[in-house]
């Protein structure tokens, strides 16, 4: 019997209530949802698949603003770290290389979206802790015996200069290890 890959566990929308609760906490850390905001735009760099989420209460107004920032030739001087990581490789004429999805309910953003987001600098420790909880659930579900080795992969990743890279990086490492 083939083992369920960790990538499938992380992107599944069908989880137990306990795992769903961890995912919900996890997503809030990634999205850096502003208090009282219910809607979101997911911006995807179509050349590398990296994503960034903007929470809002007015999808049309926020979309227009973000498109303006993407079209502005002097935009990079005002970009913060997540934008540099997510869109910094696109050069000029970025607007054609960014896909924008609208979500009326932030909670309805699929799990598969956040694994390709750069990890916000201020949330690395919190995200690592939630990620470890999800890995523990995965290890328990599959009854794996090499949890200590998998934990070392996680610790090494979050201590490295790759700690801000999307989770897909460490998820792939875990899947390659578990084979």
Helix proportion range: 40-55%
Average residue pLDDT: 84
Unreliable stretches covering 5 or more consecutive residues: none
State the order of secondary-structure elements, H for helix, E for strand: HHEEHHEHHHH
Overall domain count? 2
User: How many separate helices?
Assistant: 8
User: What Rg, in angstroms, do the CA atoms define?
Assistant: 17 Å
Structural class: mainly alpha
Task: Give a short synopsis of this structure.
The protein is built from eight helices and three strands. With 179 residues, it is mainly alpha-helical.
In words, what does this structure look like?
- This protein has two domains: 6-30 and 115-178, no CATH class; 39-109, no CATH class.
- It is 49% helix and 11% strand.
- The chain has helices at residues 6-11, 17-31, 59-71, 81-87, 111-114, 124-142, 147-159, 168-178; strands at 39-45, 51-56, 98-103.
- Helix 2 runs antiparallel to helix 6 and helix 7 (147-159) runs antiparallel to helix 8.
- The longest helix has 19 residues, at 124-142.
- The radius of gyration is 17 Å and the shape is globular.
